[in-house]
Amino acid sequence: MIRLKNLSKSFGRAKALDGLTLAIDEGEKVALIGANGAGKTTLFRCLLGQYEHEGETRIAGCDPRRARTETLDKIGFVPQSPPALKMPVGDLIDFANGVSGAPEKRIAQVAAELGLDVSEIRSRPFFKLSGGQKQKLLIAIALGREARLLILDEPAANLDPPARTVLFEMLSERRDDTMLVSSHRIDEVAGLATRVVELDRGRVVFDDRALAARRGRRPVRVAFRVDRPDPTFAEAMREWGLQPSEGDTVWSGAVAGLELARLVNVAARYSALLQEAGFGSEHEKGQARDAFNRCA
After folding, report:
1. How far apart are CA 43 and CA 278, in angstroms?
2. Do 92 and 157 meet the contact criterion of CB atoms below 8 Å apart?
3. CATH of 2-213, one of 3.40.50.2000, 2.170.120.30, 3.40.50.300, 2.40.128.270
4. pLDDT, one tens digit for every residue, the chain (296 residues)
5. What H or E segment, with its residue span, contains residue 55?
6. Helix-strand-coil percent breakdown of the chain, rounded to 5?
7. Domain map of the chain by residue range?
8. Do 110 and 93 meet the contact criterion of CB atoms below 8 Å apart?
9. For the residues of 63-122, what is the DSSP string, one character each?
10. 87 conformational bin, left if phi > 0, alpha if psi -120 to 50, beta if neither
């Protein structure tokens, strides 16, 4: 479905994507994680054909920059920041219908499930809606169409808790669709993702299907033993809620299932210090150690 090869994009001297190569197969649900500035939004913009770039980008065999109409016809997109559109909500829905064939009735239905009554805001300019209303409407437009690829950039941003729950329930029902979802709250996508990809400075630094397949929020016990106390390692472990013992040489605690993938990636950066790593059950232990060895 998605094929990226040596994808690079710079803004002046700042390199947002740096030789990124990634393949996402049809039906995969990918949680894209990484700190602010890691390159997630730039990657999305390249997939949508909005940026010139170096390297190759293909969606279902199409170059999104040179075949934008054909490519965008396959995609349902929710941006991280809503555009400052002055057109009334009704005109926006009509435009979405004309471009993507998303029926107004279906858009209104999805919006209603999220807690937004489209009929009450139809005449209001989009830019005057609240942040939550904008997000719900954009989600409704993206999910209201028959797109087999969903690119969702922080889709739960500005949503109230009930709407967050409904959103991920709706996404989980789309079993055959391919999804690329970025989120700062990895616990939210834990029940959805079949794969975790982490970006750092425009590169893929972690890519794992096995750990993501656990897909749960059940806590997993973890423990790391280092050969000597190290303040940098200690700070990293405290950020994950792990507690020290044995003179700061053993750090232990519990993390949610999908968070284990990220913690393994962090621990691997300190492989020179680590003497031993332990993870929950024997099955989890094997999965995590395999991932650790790949990262280290």
Report:
1. 34
2. no
3. 3.40.50.300
4. 899 999 999 999 999 999 999 999 999 999 998 888 899 999 999 999 999 999 999 999 999 998 888 888 889 999 988 999 999 999 999 998 888 778 899 999 999 999 999 999 999 999 999 999 999 999 999 999 888 899 999 999 889 999 999 999 999 888 889 999 998 766 677 678 888 888 989 999 888 775 555 545 567 888 899 999 999 999 999 988 899 999 999 999 988 766 676 787 788 888 889 888 887 655 555 555 555 555 44
5. strand 54-59
6. 35, 30, 35
7. 2-213, 216-295
8. no
9. -TTTSHHHHHTTEEEE-SS-----SBHHHHHHHHHHHH---HHHHHHHHHHTT--HHHHT
10. beta
| Spatial separation of the C-alpha atoms in residues 83 and 99, rounded to whole Å | 17
Tell me which amino acid residue 233 is.
Answer: F
Residue type, 1: M
User: Which tokens is 145 given?
Assistant: 């169409």
In CATH terms, the fold of domain 216-295 is Alpha-Beta Plaits (3.30.70)
